[in-house]
Specification:
The protein is mainly alpha-helical. It has one domain. It contains six helices and no strands. Helix 1 runs antiparallel to helix 2, helix 1 runs antiparallel to helix 6 and helix 4 runs antiparallel to helix 6. The protein is elongated.
Amino acid sequence: MELERLKAILTASHMKEFAEFVDYGYIAKPQLIPNREKHFRLKMLMEEFNFLGVANELLRLNQYVCEQRETKMLLDRFSHGLRHVAEYVSQNQEDLYLFSGRIYTLEHDIELFGTLSGKEAE
């Protein structure tokens, strides 16, 4: 139970850092990504799926005890959004290559729970 809680906290902190990295790159460091339109679309995708809100909620839920049902629900919601973001980044790899490493890390974190590859439907 404690291990599940720690995995959820690690995943939530990675989610939060990724969302903040995309926002920071768009606002403070526009020269990082040459095509600002694609970066803006990535930022809008992340806002549509509310990555930062899901990460904050996941951190709050698992701060003291593991809430398995709510954690699974939030991770399923996040993995759905991450699939769309990963697909968009892979289609625009030449401009958004900077984010591919973070997406790989998030996919690996979600796979620790077994929810990324559609296993939640089985």
